[in-house]
Design a protein that fits this description.
The complex is a heterodimer of chains A (281) and B (381).
Chain A: H1 6-13, H2 30-43, E1 51-55, E2 70-73, H3 79-89, E3 94-100, H4 101-107, H5 109-118, E4 122-128, E5 131-132, E6 138-139, H6 163-170, E7 174-179, H7 183-195, E8 200-205, H8 212-215, H9 221-231, E9 232-234, H10 235-239, E10 250-257, H11 263-280
Parallel strand pairs in A: 1-2, 1-3, 3-4, 4-8, 7-8, 9-10
Antiparallel strand pairs in A: 5-6, 7-10
Chain B: E1 2-7, H1 8-19, E2 21-26, H2 33-45, E3 49-52, H3 56-68, E4 72-77, H4 79-95, E5 99-107, E6 113-117, H5 122-127, E7 136-138, H6 143-160, E8 163-169, H7 170-174, E9 176-181, E10 229-231, H8 245-260, H9 263-266, E11 269-272, E12 279-283, H10 287-300, E13 305-310, E14 312-314, H11 318-325, E15 330-335, H12 341-349, E16 354-358, H13 367-378
Parallel strand pairs in B: 2-3, 2-4, 4-5, 5-8, 7-8, 12-13, 12-15, 15-16
Antiparallel strand pairs in B: 1-9, 5-6, 7-14, 11-13
Classes of the chains: A alpha/beta (281), B alpha/beta (381).
Chain lengths: 281, 381
Amino acid sequence: MKRQSESRVHERFLRHSKKFPNVWCAGCGIGIVLGAIIRAVDGLELDKNDVAMISGIGCTGRMPVYVDFNTMHTTHGRALAFATGLKMVKPEMRVIVVMGDGDALAIGGNHFIHAARRNIGLTAIVVNNSAYGMTGGQHSPTTPWGIETATTPYGHIEQQFPIAELAATAGASFVARSTVYHVRELERYLEKAITKDGFALVEAVSYCHTTLGRINRWGTAPDMMRKIKEQSMTFAQAKKMSSDEKQGKIVRGVFADRDIPEYTQLYERIIERAKQGQLDD
Amino acid sequence: MSTRLMQGDEACAEGAIAAGCRFFAGYPITPATEIAETLSRRLPQVGGKFIQMEDEIASIAAVIGASVGGAKAMTATSGPGFSLMQENIGYAAMTEIPCVIVDVQRLGPSTGRPTSPSQGDVMQARWGTHGDHPIIALSPSSVREAFDLTIRAFNFAERYRTPVIMLMDELIGHMRERIVLPDPETLKLEERTDTRVPPEWYKPFENSPEGPNIDVPPLVPFGEGYRYHITGLHHDERGYPTSRLDEIQPWMERIFRKIDRSLSDILLYEAEGIEDADTLVIAYGGAARAARHAVRMARERGRRVGFLRLKTIWPFAEEVVGNAAARLHHVVVPELNRGQLVLEVERVVGRQKVRSVNRADGEMIRPAEILAAIEDLEGAI
C-alpha cells in the first residue's frame, strides 16, 4: 500500500470549497478519527468517487461535510438506514457511516443492531465519547456508571452499552475497538473494516473535555488523552486480569472477523432467482 | 393491454413498477402490507430491490438513500407508520430528494381501527413534518386510479425533486376491481435530468439552474463523479451548511416557487355538471365514490348538483374550487374524518356556503347521508 505524506493526503481529501475552521472544539478526538479514516482510504487507494460518507446528528455527524467524498448528513440516529438504501442500489460503493455513541446506540440503537444482523456491507464507525457533546454533556448509552453529567447531577445510575461486544453479538462480520490515542492501530482497523464485505464496526474511544471533562474536573484534552492511554489494554493483557481488575478499562482489539455472506451480494442471487421464476411462468 | 382483477394496493404496486420504481423499503402494517408483499415478489423480477426494514423510520430513510443512489424509490404504510416517517419526509423536502410515500389511511388516532377506511391523515400529509415546506399529495378513488396516480406520483417526485404522498384509504387499498392496464409503452415517464456542467461547477441546490425547469436543479446520483454534500441543515447552493440569510431566503422561496408555478401540471381533478349547478359536491378518495352516487341521485330528482373530484389534495386547488364555487349557493364536502379538507374549501369560498358531511367511525359515508345534506341545504324543489 502506497502512502503519501500527511499534508498531501489532507490536500486531496479535505474540501477546499468548504470554509474552515471546523465546528469541533480545540483538542477534540473527532478530527483524529477523521484523519485516520482518510489515511485508511488513501492507503487502500480507493477512488473518491466510489466512497460515500454518511452521518447522523451530533458532533461526529458534522464529519462528512469536510471530506471530498459523496457525503450525506442525515437525521439523528438514522444514518445506517439511509446508508442501507444507498448500498442496495450502489453495491459497488464503499459506504462509510460515522456516528457518535448517542446517535448510534440511543436514538439509532435499533438500526445499529439490525444493520449488523442483516450483515449489509457498510463500514460503521462510532466515535465513543460517552456523552452528548453538541448539546452540552448529557448522559449517553455509554456514559460510565456513577459520574456526573448535565442530566445526571446526582450521579449516573444506568449501565453502559459495550458497543463492540453488541455489534459482534448482533452478527457483524468485522468488529474492532481502538482509541484516539492509538491512532495507527485505529487506522489499521479502519482499513480492514472498509475492505470487509459484510457489516463492519470500528469503535473509536474518544473523550469530551469541554462537557464531561469540565463537569467532572477531569482536566484538559491532553489529560483525558493520557487517561485513555492508561485505561486501555489489549486483549492479551485483558486475559490475564480478573473481571474486577478490568472494571472501567478499555479493551482494544478485534472482536470479530468472520466470513458471512453479505446482504447485497445475497440479494443479487434473489434477483437471479426471481428472473428465472418469471421465465418459468 | 391486459385485463386483471386487482386490489387497490396491488394496483399501486404495479403502478410503481410501471413508473420505473426499482427500490422499495417498508414495514408490515394493515392495510398497506399488500403493497410490500406484491413488490417483494415483483421488484427482483425487474432487477429492482426490496427490503423489509426494522421500522417505518428506517424504511423512509432507506428510500431516500436509494434515491440518492439514483433509483426511483417508494415506501408504503398506514397512519401509525406515517406518523413515524414524518421527520425524514421533512428531510426529503429539505434536501429535495425525489421519493414516493404511500399512506393507506385507516381509522385513527393511534392504533385505531386497522381494517377500516378513513381520510384522517389529510392534514398530516400537509403539515405532518415540522417547518414550512411544499408537498404534493394525490388521492385515488378507484383501483385503476391507484395505478395511474402512482405513476403520476413518481413523475411529480422526479420532475419537482420532492417527496410525493399517495394518500390512499383502506377502501381503495383493499377493494378489488376489474381493471385494464395500459400498454407500458404508452406511459409517459419522467426521468431524472442529468447536469450538463462538469463536477467542479455542479451546484445540486442551484437557485436558477439552466434547463427545462429553472427552479429544479438536476440531481446527480452518488457515485458518478460529482462529489457533493447533502444535509438537513439549511444549505447553500453547493449543499454546505449555512446561516446566511442571503442563502436561506432564496432557497426557501425557490422550493415553494417550483411547485406554485407548476400548478397547472400538478393539480389533477375531475368536474361534472358544474356549469348549470346550484350546489357543488367536492370529494376525493374513497368518499368520492359515495359522493358521485349521491350527486347522480340528486340529479335524477331534478336537482342541479355539480361534482368536483380532487385527485390532487395538496397543493390545494384554490383557483379551481374558487372558480367552480363562485356563483353557487352551496358547497357540500363529504369526508371520512371530522372535517379536514373542508377547512381549505371554507378558506376559499367562505364558511356560509359550506356544509361538511363527516364520518369518523371507520364506516363508509352512505350516498343517502350526502344526499340528505344537499336536500337540507337546498330545501324542497
